[in-house]
Design a protein that fits this description.
Layout (H helix, E strand, L loop, with lengths): L1 E8 L4 E8 L9 H41 L5 H20 L5 H13 L12 H8 L4 H14 L3 H9 L2 H6 L4 H8 L16 E2 L13 H10 L1 H8 L3 E12 L2 E11 L4 E11 L2 H18 L8 E8 L2 H7 L7 E7 L5 H19 L1
Helix pairs in contact: 1-2, 1-3, 5-8, 9-10
Length: 361
């Protein structure tokens, strides 16, 4: 819009008209527009990075394939393979850098050996994912981690943590290999809490010292502060609901340590933390909380509430005797503040199998 202003010139008594633009409203840019453009840029950058990573993985795979195929032509394959890697590294490393050292070329050959079908490579996996997967010798175990990492969109760091915490072996303590792999592949949904709840639970990410004695409140606070890592340790389908959930019963107040919901099991999961050795009173307390949720919180379409006693120490026989024979909803799971060795967990799995065999006899 233009405004016409009239000014008089006293010297020649003429009238001068000056046009000034005026605006009825100050223009403003929408914040949503800026945010949408930022999102477009971020998405494009992410796609570009993924594209580069995918091409890099394919390059490593093809290099590994070429070296492997050439290696098969030698009379002494082991000696010829070593000679090939040394010679190729000598030629390429000065030009292309440390990505073509002898060690890296060895990784590429192992990559092709473990993943010989290029169409089976996962586009969401980076090279760091594959480097970790290559180190897993057992084929069933490797397939489990591939399926879980793909399904849950684990980062390379999360995959490494799950492998190092022996997730596969811990699940085997309560399940057979077929059940563990079927759930990982999404061929079946878990129908029992034992199929996804681990014993022990490894809480090394809390950063608590192994030797120290902690109050239950300290452990609970540390879990809340590392909630994302704790949900990863809990497993598939868990969502945080509440901390210190108040239950009022006829004038008395009780407080549940932690409440979660599992969408796969379609049930509430009540968790009580015990930093001392588990007692039958602790089991009775958790049973009361589970009964409350079943009677007053659970919807018709939901399954029975699950109770987990996360404890520093437990007597499995006492737990078994304290619960009904048909119990399927109360679980006592020991927690560890450090990463167990694979050897330790394999021994635990063997002990579990031996117990089951004796029970069947």
């Amino acid at each position: 819009m233009l405004t016409l202003d009239k000014q008089h010139n006293n010297k020649n008594k003429s009238v001068v008209f000056i046009y000034r633009p005026t605006y009825q409203k100050k223009m403003q840019i929408k914040k949503e527009l800026i945010q949408e453009i930022r999102q477009i840029i971020a998405n494009s950058q992410t796609k570009a990075i993924r594209s580069v990573d995918t091409e890099r993985v394919l390059m490593y795979w093809n290099i590994g394939r070429k070296i492997f195929e050439e290696e098969q032509q030698g009379e002494d394959r082991a000696a010829y393979g070593t000679f090939l890697i040394q010679s190729i590294s000598k030629e390429l490393q000065p030009q292309f850098g440390s990505g073509f050292s002898r060690r890296q070329l060895y990784w590429y050959v192992q990559f092709y050996r473990k993943f010989p079908i290029v169409s089976a490579l996962r586009t969401q996996f980076h090279w760091t994912h594959y480097k970790k997967l290559i180190t897993i010798g057992n084929e069933d175990k490797r397939e489990f981690y591939i399926a879980e990492a793909s399904k849950n969109n684990w980062s390379a760091r999360q995959l490494e943590r799950q492998v190092n915490s022996s997730l596969y072996e811990r699940l085997l303590k309560s399940n057979n290999i077929e059940a563990v792999l079927s759930i990982a592949r999404n061929e079946k949904y878990p129908s029992q809490p034992q199929e996804i709840i681990k014993d022990p639970m490894v809480l090394e990410f809390l950063g608590l010292k192994r030797q120290a004695t902690y109050y239950e409140k300290d452990l609970e606070t540390a879990i809340i502060e590392h909630l994302q890592d704790f949900l990863l340790e809990l497993g598939n389908g868990f969502t945080f609901v509440a901390r210190q959930k108040r239950i009022h019963l006829d004038g008395d107040d009780f407080f549940v340590d932690l409440v979660f919901y599992n969408r796969l099991l379609q049930s509430f999961v009540i968790m009580e933390i015990k930093t001392q050795k588990l007692t039958h009173q602790d089991i009775g307390q958790l049973q009361m909380y589970v009964n409350y949720y079943d009677r007053y919180e659970r919807q018709v379409f939901e399954n029975q509430t699950i109770g987990i006693l996360l404890c520093a120490n437990k007597n499995d026989t006492m737990v078994k005797v304290s619960l009904p024979e048909n119990n399927k909803t109360i679980i006592a799971s020991k927690y560890e503040l450090y990463l167990p060795s694979e050897k330790q967990l394999i021994q635990e799995v063997k002990k579990k199998i031996e117990k089951l065999v004796k029970m069947k006899k």
